[in-house]
Amino acid sequence: MSGPARASGGRGPRSVRQGGVYSLHTRGRRALCLGAVCLAGLLMAACMHTVLSEPAGFSGTPRSPAPASPSPPQLTGDPDRPYLLQTQPPYTVALDAGHGGFDTGAEAIIKELEVCEQTVNALYTLLEQDSNYAPVRTRPNGEDRSIKERAQAATDAGASLLLSVHANSDESTGQSHGFECFPTPPGRTYSEESMRFAQCIAQKMGGAGHRLRGENGIRFAYYNGKSKRIVDSTDTKIREQKSFGIVERPYCPAVLVEQCFLTNYSDVENWTGEAGCARAARIYYEAICAYFGTEPLPQGGSV
Question: Could you tell me the residue range of the domain that residue 205 belongs to?
């Protein structure tokens, strides 16, 4: 007598226990596979982010850290000293190219405006390359600004020093030549610091062979209406008359320089044009370093 009929395929029915074990194993394997796929996706996304975040041609060399930004000015509430001058780098230095826009300044062998902007451009580059400094301009190239606006630009930046670049002229003769600078006069808030900066500049200009006008290349200027009076720095009498606005208005030490005489061929040859302005800019840069006590970068160097 034959036995009971078998199910198709020759396999008997599984018990409930066997089916449960099989189902658990299957779900476990599926969960492991899904986890592995997710992990692989995350790793791939991380790799793609790293590759895309590097510039083209990146060779794997570590990036140099970005230079530190100058700290915002620390306000004091004192109208004579609205913010504290910086005591550590990076120092904010305001650069003022004299005149601007339609105001070209003196016009002789060369225009004063060209000398001012070319010198400030070269000095800005030198300071920008040095991580000890954060240069700011009091006006854009090609544009004019009032003295009040220029001083305000320095104040808004929290400048700890200001240099205003100009050039001289003497239409009565081509013999006048040399360098002179004008710090904030005696009796003002930052007169002593301004004088120290002026001394740094004059010493380096004299050391470079430039003729220093007057006693030592440092003078004070005073206005009585439209009449201007110039005295040597040995005259430390405190006067009520106003000086150049750009050295009176800023809330930091300030010096105005007269780089050379545009009516003198020797001065123009040595202290204007690309080479002459770069030469002067290097002297101003080294004077700024001497004032703050930092080591200047070597010629053509950067950090």
Answer: 87-292
Q: What is the pLDDT of residues 284-296, one digit of tens each?
A: 999 999 999 999 9
* Number of domains observed in the structure of the chain: 2
Residue 11 in any domain: the answer is no
Give 251-270 pLDDT, tens digit per residue. 999 999 999 999 999 999 99
Nearest to 259 by CA among 94, 113, 125, 100: 113
Mean pLDDT (whole number) for 226-237: 94
Tokens, residue 283: 């002297």
pTM of the model: 0.77
| CA distances for 139 relative to 85, 95, 96, 193, 254, angstroms | 21, 9, 7, 24, 16
Distances (CA, A) of 289 to 95, 185, 264: 15, 22, 30
Q: In this structure, are 253 and 213 located in the same domain?
A: yes
Q: CA 113, CA 41: separation in Å to the nearest integer?
A: 61
Residue 29, pLDDT above cutoff 60: no
CB-based burial label for 132 (10 Å; 0-12, 13-18, 19+): buried
| CATH code: domain of residue 153 | 3.40.630.40
pLDDT of residue 216: 96
Encode 218-241: b = buried (16+ Cβ within 10 Å), e = exposed.
bbbbbeeeeeeeebebeeeeeeee
Sign of the Cα torsion 297, 182, 231, 272 reads positive
Q: How far apart are CA 266 and CA 268, in angstroms?
A: 5
Q: Is 171 a member of any domain?
A: yes
